[in-house]
Write a structure and sequence with these properties.
1 helix
Length: 91
């Protein structure tokens, strides 16, 4: 009962927005040279989804890991928007 997602009241936000942030750490693992990538989503200021993973592949350039995390976040956006439409939530 003490855990949950808190959504602000309607007066706090004039429009419900889905906001995403993403970042990556290129070759952060010194032993295996694997990168870490992650993203986080907020709906109306409340955290609803996040992911942080060590990527299974070794990338040669920092722009590659940025592209990978952008694609992972985009897949999550598509899923979240579909789910919110099914719940009849307008963004």
């Amino acid at each position: 009962m003490s855990c949950g997602i808190l959504f602000p009241n309607e007066k706090s936000y004039s429009k419900l927005e889905l906001v995403e942030y993403s970042d990556s750490y290129w070759s952060g693992d010194k032993s295996g040279r694997k990168s870490t990538a992650g993203y986080i989503f907020f709906l109306g200021g409340a955290l609803i989804s996040w992911n942080s993973t060590k990527e299974p592949i070794v990338v040669l350039f920092s722009c590659e890991i940025e592209y990978i995390v952008a694609l992972e976040a985009y897949c999550q956006v598509v899923w979240l928007e579909t789910m919110l439409k099914e719940l009849k939530v307008e963004l």
